Amino acid sequence: MDYALCEASRHNMEGITRAVTFYDINCQYNKHFRVWVDRGRFLEMAPQLTIIPGIGLWHVHGHQDSCYVRYASNFIEGIGRIDGEIMETLWAQLNLISPAAQGMSSPHQKECLDYQMNDSNFCKMIRMKRTLCWKYKLARNGISESGKAFDRLDEAAPAHLKTEWLARERIAQSSRLNDPSAEPLQ
Predict the structure, then answer these.
(1) Which of 51, 131, 139, 183 has a Cα-to-Cα distance from 38 of 20 to 30 A?
(2) Is 21 helix (H, G, I), strand (E, B) or coil?
(3) Cα–Cα distance for residue pair 161/159, rounded to 1 Å
(4) Sign (positive/negative) of CA torsion 116, 122, 127, 131?
(5) CB 149 within 8 A of CB 156
């Protein structure tokens, strides 16, 4: 994982100083990432690049409560909704063949699961255009609806409260990852 992230961070990153990574265990992984990179003989990360850790919404709810506000995409500045937990969406399809696969020998079971996953990947590939267009339309409509709702709230809120809320948000964003009360997972 360290090597993959370091190599990815060096590809077409000129002028980019901030990258958001999503990983199921980022609350633990990111704690010592820079130390591991600095100690690694084959690892190199641009020093100006700030890695902002996130955990997908499907996984973060299984963590401690403190992980939600620190790592959920809802609270990372500049991030909206993401579609980053693809592996879990494939489990339902594997459930269809799991009763049949239970009685198979290991090589036959592997062949059957490989076939199912390859078929799933092929179907995703040929439906990608339609899926991406559908997701784009949903996002575009979501932006419009969210903008209207925000404008209604913004007009109704007193100016002095908006100023106070913005100040509190800046404080929360700056201390989101540096919460000393958060206990590491054991």
Answers:
(1) 183
(2) strand
(3) 5
(4) positive
(5) no
Question: What predicted TM-score, i.e. pTM, was given to this entire model?
Answer: 0.65
Residues 6+ apart with CB under 8 A from 49: 9, 13, 16, 17, 18, 19
Three-class SS of residue 17?
A: coil
Give the start-to-end residue ranges of the domains of the chain. 1-84, 85-186
The C-alpha atoms of residue 133 and residue 121 are separated, in whole angstroms, by 18
Contacts of 104 (CB under 8 A, 6+ apart): 112
Which has the closest alpha carbon to 94: 71, 66, 115, 69? 115
Contact 106, 78 (CB under 8 A): no
Q: Is 109 exposed, middle or buried (0-12, 13-18, 19+ CB in 10 A)?
A: middle
Question: Vertex 29, ends 65 and 35: CA angle to 5°?
Answer: 130
